[in-house]
Design brief:
By secondary structure, this protein is an alpha+beta fold. It has nine helices and 19 strands.
Length: about 375
């Protein structure tokens, strides 16, 4: 961070031990400007991915930027379901800065483990507000406390103010999120007090007994993550390995092994219907897959239809922007929560199985489970 950047973000640390003339203070730059004009790097915001991630262009470079110090509700994480106010959080950030020139200011760390640039994002003059802070102040993001950053105290004060005033994720004392979860049909985790001062944890049709109090949080997080990341036989196998056994006798029948990644020896003729979670075993072949679309994502020039929240692992149907005019209006809404039969060739893109569809004739709606 440059010297001006530090001054702009740390006014509370300045000490005035003497009565300095006002004109001298102004000339010395001790009063921080909301948009530190000579600090950081100017960039143009091309796209908002979610409430804490941007795509920007700086000079000739296009970069992904992760906003420092905040954690917005997830809307596209492969290991977590869509969260309360995730769409609204992304829309709020988009209204703040999409299509605008912003100032990017670094802190101690330059990038995160995923290669995204970590930055404070200042809005253009004459606004000059700090977008990261505005998301916390409006209740569209929480403070991310697991990593150190220089503005943490300021962000925590803004979060407390948002909580006290019931903004965004804190609406109605947090009960708004609970109501949303119940209405969305989210699967609850049940915890039962058991003998020997232990607990039993139940998730769906599986349970794990004899869980020590100190292990409750870790146990719950693990089974929820396994459920979010995996499907079918693979989920059953991994849940079993984690100590979660079927609660019913029928559920304890042997589970067939999950097909190996890649083509393997699986036989499939052109157009054959295969389970969506086994599409990876048929790379390079034309098949028909069937399943429910549980998540959709619309970018500027592309639409993704996901059969499972873990889009990095399981099949995605891809429709490019040039082909979208032939599909139903608002296809991201039209296809969501519907059971589809999709025909096409399974390919791998960055080791992720997908079927690219160019015509609505390749998609048949076979059921509607509602919204």
């Amino acid at each position: 961070m440059t010297g001006l950047g530090r001054i702009a973000g740390a006014g509370r640390g300045i000490r005035f031990g003497h009565a300095w003339p006002l004109w001298l203070l102004l000339a010395s730059g001790f009063f921080p400007a909301p948009f530190p004009a000579d600090a950081g790097e100017r960039a143009h915001v091309l796209e908002v991915f979610d409430g804490d991630t941007l795509l920007v262009r700086s000079g000739q470079d296009v970069r992904t930027v992760r906003l420092i110090g905040i954690d917005s509700p997830e809307m596209g994480h492969p290991a977590r379901p869509r969260e309360f106010l995730s769409v609204e959080s992304a829309a709020y950030l988009s209204a703040l800065c999409e299509g605008k020139e912003v100032l990017l200011e670094p802190d101690e760390e330059d990038t995160d483990p995923y290669g995204r640039y970590l930055r404070y994002v200042f809005l253009p003059a004459p606004d000059g507000r700090l977008a990261n802070l505005e998301l916390v102040r409006s209740g569209h993001a929480r403070v991310l406390r697991i990593f150190p950053f220089s503005r943490r105290e300021e962000f925590e004060r803004a979060e407390e103010e948002a909580r006290e005033n019931g903004r965004g994720i804190w609406k109605d004392g947090g009960r708004a999120e609970l109501s949303w979860l119940r209405a969305s049909g989210a699967e609850p985790v049940l915890v039962y007090p058991a003998s020997g001062r232990t607990f039993a944890v139940v998730y769906g049709d599986r349970g794990k007994p004899d869980v020590e109090r100190e292990e409750l949080g870790r146990t719950i997080s693990r089974i929820v993550r396994l459920r979010a990341e995996n499907a079918g036989p693979e989920y059953a196998r991994k849940a079993e390995e984690a100590g979660f056994r079927p609660l019913t006798e029928s559920g304890s029948l042997p589970v067939p092994p999950f097909p190996p990644f890649g083509r393997g020896d699986a036989a499939a003729t052109a157009g054959e219907t295969v389970p969506w979670d086994q599409a990876r075993a048929h790379v390079g072949r034309e098949v028909t897959v069937e399943g429910k679309i549980v998540r959709t994502h619309r970018g500027k020039n592309i639409l993704y239809l996901n059969f499972h929240p873990n889009w990095k692992k399981y099949l995605t149907v891809v429709i490019f922007g040039k082909d979208l005019p032939g599909f139903p209006d608002n296809p991201e809404t039209f296809y969501r929560n519907k059971a589809l039969r999709v025909r096409g060739t399974v390919t791998l893109h960055k080791d992720r199985p997908e079927i690219v569809v160019t015509s609505p004739a390749a998609i048949t709606v076979v059921g509607d489970t509602g919204n």
